[in-house]
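Figure 6 in text form: structure in, sequence out.
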């Protein structure tokens, strides 16, 4: 009886954790520790100064905008130096001024022409791009377009001082016309408006006119 009692008592004993059966390991529950991670900041990306849209020829418009009606036989007016310009093709602009109608490569003044443009939607317009190219006064051949970023001076006014060296293809022309067009764009670079291509209102002279020498 004593042996039976001891045997039954042994069966009811609970083994301590340190005496668990060989080959088993007590499982521990990992505690998940949350780390406070800073929220990534979103930095707005502005378009670069390089614009790839192409100037539109006189009378043509961007496919996303409606062309203004032009009456047959109506002359297209070009910019007048020093005075505001009204034109049938001034979409997005209220005025464009040029400081001169002719400039020189070097040697004589002026060697640059100042462009001043006033946009009509000051809230939406973030960029004004000046496109320029040469046009031969004899053959009518043209160079590729050069795009130049203008500077905002506030109140919807944008300016740029243009020199001959900024326009691509200078070495291929002699006393050419300088064609130009201005285009407005929003903060994403989408075109909002554009002027006509001004054809023969700005002349570039390669050299100063010769001065006749005195004859005895």
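Output sequence:
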């Amino acid at each position: 009886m004593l042996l039976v009692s001891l045997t039954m008592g042994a069966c009811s004993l609970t083994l301590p954790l340190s005496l668990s059966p060989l080959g088993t390991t007590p499982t521990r529950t990992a505690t998940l520790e949350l780390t406070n991670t800073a929220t990534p900041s979103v930095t707005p990306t502005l378009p670069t100064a390089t614009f790839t849209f192409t100037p539109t020829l006189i009378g043509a418009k961007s496919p996303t905008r409606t062309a203004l009606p032009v009456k047959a036989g109506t002359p297209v007016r070009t910019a007048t130096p020093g005075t505001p310009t009204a034109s049938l093709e001034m979409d997005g602009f209220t005025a464009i001024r040029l400081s001169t109608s002719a400039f020189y490569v070097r040697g004589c003044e002026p060697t640059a022409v100042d462009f001043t443009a006033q946009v009509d939607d000051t809230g939406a317009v973030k960029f004004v791009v000046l496109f320029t190219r040469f046009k031969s006064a004899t053959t009518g051949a043209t160079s590729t377009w050069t795009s130049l970023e203008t500077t905002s001076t506030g109140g919807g006014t944008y300016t740029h001082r243009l020199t001959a060296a900024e326009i691509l293809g200078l070495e291929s022309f002699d006393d050419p016309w300088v064609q130009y067009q201005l285009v407005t764009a929003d903060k994403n670079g989408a075109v909002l408006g554009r002027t006509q291509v001004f054809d023969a209102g700005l002349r570039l002279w390669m050299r100063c006119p010769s001065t006749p020498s005195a004859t005895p």
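Caption detail: The chain has a mean pLDDT of 72.
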